[in-house]
Amino acid sequence: MANRYITLGRGPHKVLALHGWFGSARSWEPLHAALNSEEFTYVFMDCRGYGEARALEGEYTMAEVARDALALADQLGLDKFSLMGHSMGGVAIQHLLLAAPQRVRKLVAITPVPASGVPFDEPGWELFSSAAQSLMARKAIIDYSTGSRLSSAWVERMARQSQQDSRAEAFGAYLNSWARSDFANDVAGHPVPVQVLVGAHDPSLTAEVMAHTWLRSYPNAELAVLDNAGHYPVNETPVALATRIEAFLRA
Q1: What are phi and psi of 216, to 5 degrees?
Q2: Is residue 1 predicted with pLDDT exceeding 60?
Q3: Res. 107: pLDDT tops 90
Q4: CA-CA distance, 84 to 93, in Å (whole number)?
Q5: Neighbour tally for 10: CB within 10 Å
Q6: Greatest pairwise CA separation for the chain in angstroms
Q7: Which residues, 6 or more positions from 5, have their beta carbon under 8 angstroms from its beta carbon?
Q8: N or C end of the chain: which has fewer CB within 10 A?
Q9: Residue 56 and residue 79: Cα distance in Å, rounded?
Q10: In sequence order, what are the residues at sequence separation of 6 or more whose Cβ sits closer than 8 angstroms to the Cβ of residue 103?
Q11: b or e along 166-185 (b: 16 or more beta carbons within 10 Å of the residue's beta carbon)?
Q12: Measured distance CA(229)–CA(237) in Å, rounded
């Protein structure tokens, strides 16, 4: 697992963070300046096929990401930790919760995919399936998922960065795992405290969707909507997001 993660802070509360489909360990960097490094230690991991793990072969599933994250926690001596996941990372942290429930303190789910997956229509599935090879498709997805309201230069940069930070084979394979799996029955009723954060301008993973998925599965879940954010609050509103995350973690 060497060189597959970035650490920030030296605090006693450990937080293991799993990135989204368009992300990498580096994609959390906009948050860094707003995080409390005295209270918390953050570990940002690259999934196989991404970032410093770009060349690492695998089955490219959310269950495998969870196994890798648990192995990293063991390597770093993290006996108890909280989990943070963005988008598809929201699926991976739930798999990790099921694998090691006694070690998980809290979940922070940022614009997260539910354990029940995502019900795509045919055009939507074609668009997302083409994104592994198509920069244009990546740009269209990022633009749509942020409410078609942000700078085209920013959308272009996000799309190109995602293309540089991921291998097409892995990117395409992960789609099937996070979008078309359903293990909601396995997590139903779990008592872990959960903070679900959605962007007010995310047209798909909305507060209503969260109410019917995450909040039904986890009785100790709470939901907050981030103003002026779409699907990428790490990039869109990092200070507001970091403030929400740490208020929940320290509560």
Answers
A1: -75, -35
A2: no
A3: yes
A4: 7
A5: 10
A6: 48
A7: 25, 43, 44, 45, 46, 52, 72
A8: C
A9: 26
A10: 73, 78, 79, 80, 81
A11: bbeebbbbbbebbbebebbe
A12: 6
